[in-house]
Amino acid sequence: MTKKIAVLVRERQEEALRMAVGITLMDDVIDIYVLDRKIEKNEKNVLNLETACDMEMKVYTNKRENHDMEYLDNKEIAARLLGYSHILAY
After folding, report:
1. Which portions of the chain are predicted below pLDDT 70?
2. Does the global pTM surpass 0.85?
3. Which of 11, 23, 58, 88 is the most exposed place for a label (fewest CB within 10 A)?
């Protein structure tokens, strides 16, 4: 049975993005939410975000400074999170 998983990214950005890309091996639907911070533009984060996009994962944020991601306000994010079977917070 396919699961719908949300990965919430805050402090541990590299670890969260690596985890989100890694769990795609299970053929579940995985969406990434970068919350409350601008994503650090380092080599690992850039590679993992590119990989996530190549795998057609959706990446959302509540910070307008994250230009390569779809912006959602906190109310929209909260409403969407109700539809996930698992939520992984980093």
Report:
1. none
2. yes
3. 11
